[in-house]
Design a protein that fits this description.
501 residues, globular, alpha+beta
Length: 501
């Protein structure tokens, strides 16, 4: 199971409450979460409490988080927020330590002293990076991913991924330097490699799993009497109750110390897994089989659409321009329009959907290939990387998103996720495309003239604008006019499709 992706494990836990999948997720990330908490709270016992609360939150909010392509960023942000709240509640000396650190010059030759000064402010600095900058730093130094592995996640070469990490590290160094924490980039990289990740205390992962599992059991039981009939569940209920009581954290910490002894005894009792639980291998094979079946059904739907499009339709009447007009005229118009557009450049062939590929984001043309590949393969994570908003559209989108109901904002998390969902679910992907021309409008902007072919042999020609962002990614620009449709996207009143269709 150690080679399975986080997404497969998380999906197995959300869908079937597969406790072994959740346990594997905890064991994969417990060192990273504990290290983050320890850097902020600076107390081993409090860091253990924060770590358990992070994984308890992961279990409680699992359904909302299953659409994420990576849990690493969410775990870091949650650990950081809980740790900061713990420090404030305990009225510890963090503020005085930060002020003292800002007043004292750092000796870059003393790595221990340098890390003691940087560690309390590292996570605050990471929070100020962009999402992609923070992710590559966390993947490289906190999850120990190689440049090849990072490139695979982003659709980049190993060399491009390494450059992305270097730029993010330089940005992090600049943020720390603005707070008086100066260190060469090479020294900062060495410190992160050596100090950013430490092994969590023995048994902490098991404690977190037990606490989160007990919390997940509560809503599924039918009556409280049935739950209380089991001594094991009583211990789980005590752990959940202690974690949820809103008392001062000092008292909570004392309670948790006693509960850890009870949980240790519980782990011994639960050492043998229940015989009725399905094996991890069977569960993963079942998920893969379901995914293959879904792809097969999608292919059948596409074939049926094409067959339906070729069938003759009974002539019906529609009102157009004040006179009756046969609906067959629409098909004739689409056919003539397709012939006209395709005749522009007969020597440039259409690229069919089966040849779409994830070509990365290094050029506008590569991003266009990747965007079409993401649309056909329903890959929301890749689509989110390849589209962007104009500054005017970004401002308007943020204003509209802030005015939306709380349920909508919690569902999507950001206006970018909302737009990707719209792009993926309300727009049929193209069956083929070709690029007629490319125009460089500036060093970081370009325009492609593209023809798309859709079901029923419809052909549309559009000019797509791309811009080169600070991370070296070429993104397709979503213009400000798209924002006028945003309220209709939410209300479900719109039946329009994406631009170019």
């Amino acid at each position: 199971m150690a080679d399975d992706s986080d997404q497969i494990l998380f999906h197995a836990y959300v869908r079937n409450r597969c406790e072994s999948s959740f346990s594997e997720l905890v064991h994969r990330h417990v060192d990273f979460v504990h290290s983050t908490a320890l850097r902020i709270v600076r107390d081993p016992n409090l860091a253990e409490d924060v770590t358990q609360r992070v994984f308890l939150a992961l279990a409680q909010h699992a359904a909302k988080l299953q659409g994420r392509a990576s849990l690493t960023g969410w775990l870091h942000e949650t650990a950081r927020n809980l740790a900061i709240n713990t420090v404030r509640s305990e009225k510890r000396r963090r503020q005085r330590e930060q002020e003292a650190a800002a007043m004292n010059p750092l000796d870059s030759n003393d790595s221990d002293t340098l890390w003691e000064q940087i560690a309390p402010r590292l996570d605050e600095a990471l929070a100020q990076l962009s999402a992609i900058e923070r992710d590559v730093i966390l993947w490289r130094y906190f999850e120990r991913r190689t440049a090849e592995q990072i490139g695979g996640r982003l659709g980049l070469t190993a060399e491009a991924a390494q450059k992305r990490v270097a730029r993010a590290l330089e940005r992090l160094r600049g943020i720390l330097a603005a707070r008086g924490l100066t260190a060469p980039t090479a020294s900062l990289a060495a410190l992160l490699s050596a100090q950013a990740l430490h092994s969590a205390p023995v048994g902490l992962a098991a404690s977190a799993i037990t606490t989160a599992s007990a919390a997940a059991v509560l809503p599924a039981a039918s009556t409280l009497q049935i739950l209380m009939a089991s001594t094991k569940v009583k211990i789980g209920l005590a752990a959940v109750a202690a974690a949820s009581i809103t008392t001062p954290l000092v008292l909570q910490h004392q309670t948790n110390s006693r509960l850890r002894d009870e949980i240790a005894r519980l782990r011994i009792e639960l050492a043998t897994p229940p015989p009725a639980q399905a094996s991890d291998t069977s569960e993963l094979e079942r998920l893969r089989a379901e995914h293959e079946e879904l792809l097969r059904l999608r292919g059948q739907v596409t074939q049926l659409r094409q067959q339906l499009a070729r069938q003759p339709k009974a002539p019906t009447k529609v009102i157009s321009g004040g006179r009756d007009k046969p609906a067959a005229d629409d098909l004739a118009f689409e056919s003539e329009n397709a012939k006209t557009l395709l005749a522009k450049a007969p020597g440039i062939p259409m690229i069919p959907a089966k040849e779409f590929r994830n070509a990365g984001y290094d050029t506008p043309l590569a991003s266009l290939h990747t965007m079409n590949w993401a649309a056909v393969n329903r890959d929301t994570n890749v689509m989110r990387h390849v589209i962007g908003l104009e500054p005017e559209a970004r401002t308007r989108a943020d204003e509209l998103f802030a005015q939306m109901p709380e349920a909508i904002r919690q569902k999507y998390g950001s206006v970018d996720a909302l737009l990707v969902d719209w792009r993926m679910n309300l727009a049929d992907p193209p069956e083929a495309f070709r690029v007629l021309s490319q125009r460089e409008d500036g060093p970081d902007t370009a325009t492609l003239t593209v023809q798309f072919q859709y079901p029923n042999m419809r052909v549309r020609e559009n000019e797509l604008s791309f811009y080169h962002d600070q991370d070296g990614v070429w993104r397709q620009v979503m213009p400000s006019q798209v924002m006028d449709k945003l309220p209709y996207i939410i209300s479900g009143q719109t039946q329009s499709t994406a631009s170019g269709k």
